[in-house]
């Protein structure tokens, strides 16, 4: 076994939870490797402005993730980005992670922090018109819709806040939401409702996307009456929450029915030496701060686990 | 959505020495060549990723792409790297 493929802890995921775990573990002189499937920083890098991260007046998600990555590396944490896991062995004293390029790494403990991705509607035309009228990022693509009519799908904080933000560009924003009420906080509802450029279609959903080179219209279904009608539209922004990136864990018996990782108060899963943190775990609030808190707890618990293992090995030697 | 694609390109650049990687601000006046390319007609999601071969556009994508998607295009249009 090559020395450089052996670690004390492997962290899967490099969002705020995974990077925080990397910072804490590496600073505690625990050999740590972070493996990330996508961009280091996770969903955080797509957040234009973070104004409620304590101790930092205002920053962008990209800047914050850059600092976290630098901090983790400064303590000696190794980070591999844009690599997918092809095989995972979590049971037993030695855990192993094989990447799709064939590299294999082993560790005494694993922290699962795979995060989530924007939930899709899953209706006909969604894939075809992604980037051609359908977007999941208002900050990135809002400018393309200057003077145009758009739909925002969703009824949570993200949907209503982004709907207000998109009125800077669009001539009219229509919020389409499946329920007859919103899940967002009152301040977000009030701000959206008081904006004259925003109208609402409630108890409805988009049933299909249509167009040629780019999106031209959507079919909207009223979920109470069953009525289906076509609405010409230039763009659709979808903010209907996130799905956990836990498909690679589906055989591990640690997920609930929604695919979220079940953990205890120490962020420990049902498998000894396997911990989890961040947006992929079962919890109510998914924020950068809660991910950082999860990552801290998971790291400290994993550090204790590794320490106990070492003590046991010394006692047996 | 640009940042994830930038990071992918930065990681792939050393693996594809036979491919030259460039990035350009979307609002840069010189980027009109990209914005107005027929291959980018209908694109409404950043980044626009355009693949040139012998001076001609052979592929263009809009919005976020995964590393596997980018590698598939590079391998198909420019060949698999020798050390891959």
The share of residues in extended strands of chain A comes to 25-35%
Question: Strand fraction band of chain B?
Answer: 15-25%
Q: List the helices and strands of chain A in order.
A: EHEHEEEEEEHEHEHEEEEEEEH
Largest sheet of chain A: 7 strands, mixed
What overall geometry of chain B do the principal axes of the alpha carbons give? globular
Nearest-angstrom radius of gyration of chain B?
A: 13 Å
Low-confidence regions of chain B: none
- Over all CA atoms, what is the radius of gyration of chain A? 22 Å
The pLDDT mean of chain A sits at 93
Shape of chain A: elongated
**Largest interface, per-chain counts?**
A-B, 26 and 20 residues
Which structural class should the secondary elements of chain A be placed in?
A: alpha/beta
Mean pLDDT of chain B: 88
Instruction: Name the poorly predicted regions of chain A.
Output: none
Which oligomeric state applies? heterodimer
Output the keywords.
heterodimer, A: 317 residues, alpha/beta, 6 helices, 17 strands, elongated, B: 84 residues, two-stranded antiparallel ribbon, 2 strands, 32% helix, globular
Short description:
The complex is a heterodimer of chains A (317) and B (84). By secondary structure, chain A is α/β, with parallel strands linked by helices.
Structure commentary:
Helix content of chain A is about 25%, strand content about 25%. By secondary structure, chain A is α/β, with parallel strands linked by helices. The radius of gyration of chain A is 22 Å and the shape is elongated. Chain A is built from six helices and 17 strands. In chain A, strand 9, helix 4 and strand 10 form a beta-alpha-beta unit. The longest helix of chain B has 12 residues. The model of chain B has no long low-confidence stretch (mean pLDDT about 90). A two-stranded antiparallel ribbon of chain B has the order 1-2. The radius of gyration of chain B is 13 Å and the shape is globular.
């Amino acid at each position: 076994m090559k020395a450089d493929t052996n670690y004390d802890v492997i962290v899967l995921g490099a969002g705020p939870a995974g990077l925080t775990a990397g910072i804490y573990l590496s600073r505690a002189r625990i050999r740590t490797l972070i493996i990330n499937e996508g961009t280091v920083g996770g969903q955080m890098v797509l957040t234009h402005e973070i104004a409620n991260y304590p101790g930092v007046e205002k920053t962008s998600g990209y800047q914050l993730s850059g600092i976290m990555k630098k901090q983790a590396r400064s303590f000696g944490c190794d980070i591999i980005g844009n690599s997918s896991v092809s095989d995972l062995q979590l049971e037993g004293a030695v855990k192993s992670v094989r990447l799709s390029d064939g590299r294999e790494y082993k560790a005494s403990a694993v922290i699962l922090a795979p995060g989530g991705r924007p939930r899709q509607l899953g209706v006909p035309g969604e894939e075809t018109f992604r980037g051609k009228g359908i977007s999941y990022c208002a900050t990135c693509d809002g400018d393309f819709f200057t003077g145009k009519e758009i739909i925002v799908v969703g009824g949570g904080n993200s949907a209503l806040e982004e709907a207000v933000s998109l009125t800077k560009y669009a001539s009219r924003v229509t919020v389409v939401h499946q329920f007859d009420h919103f899940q967002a906080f009152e301040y977000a509802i009030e701000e959206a409702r008081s904006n004259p450029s925003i109208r609402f279609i409630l108890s409805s959903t988009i049933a299909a996307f249509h167009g040629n080179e780019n999106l031209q219209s959507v079919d909207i279904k009223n979920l109470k009456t069953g009525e289906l009608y076509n609405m010409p539209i230039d763009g659709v922004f979808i903010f209907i929450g996130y799905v956990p990136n836990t498909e690679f864990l589906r055989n591990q018996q640690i997920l609930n029915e929604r695919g979220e990782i079940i953990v205890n108060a120490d962020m420990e899963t049902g498998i000894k030496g396997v911990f989890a943190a961040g947006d992929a775990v079962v919890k109510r609030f998914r924020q950068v701060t809660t991910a950082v808190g999860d990552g801290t707890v998971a790291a400290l618990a994993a550090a204790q686990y590794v320490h106990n293992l070492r003590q046991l090995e010394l006692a047996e030697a | 959505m640009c940042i994830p694609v930038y990071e992918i390109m930065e990681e792939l650049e050393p693996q594809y020495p036979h491919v030259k990687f460039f990035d350009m601000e979307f609002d840069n006046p010189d980027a009109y060549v990209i914005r107005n390319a027929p291959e980018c007609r209908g694109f409404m999601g950043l980044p626009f990723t355009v693949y040139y071969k012998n001076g001609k556009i052979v592929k263009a994508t809009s919005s976020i792409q995964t590393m596997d998607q980018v590698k598939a295009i590079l391998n198909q249009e420019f060949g698999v790297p020798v050390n891959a």
